[in-house]
Amino acid sequence: MEPEFSNEENEQLIKVYLSIIKKKLNCPTGEKGYILMANQELIIDDQFLNVLNKCGDIFFRRR
Q1: Which of 37, 40, 50, 38 is nearest to 10 (CA)?
Q2: pLDDT per residue over 42-59, tens digit each?
Q3: Which of 1, 9, 25, 43 is the right S-S partner for 48, CB 3.0 to 4.6 Å?
Q4: CA dihedral 27, 33, 34, 37 (to 10 degrees)
Q5: How far apart are CA 46 and CA 63, in angstroms?
């Protein structure tokens, strides 16, 4: 069962997810794994994967 979040908590969490994705996209290649390891407690849920998929869709459409 997914945890219930208020709209404000949900927006904050999505901002954190987007920040992690942005850091990973902009960091040097050798550091990418460290970003994921440092944030692994935040990125192991379905909501992160949904945000990641949406970002991928947006990126793909812009190409």
Answers
A1: 50
A2: 887 888 889 989 998 988
A3: 43
A4: 130
A5: 26
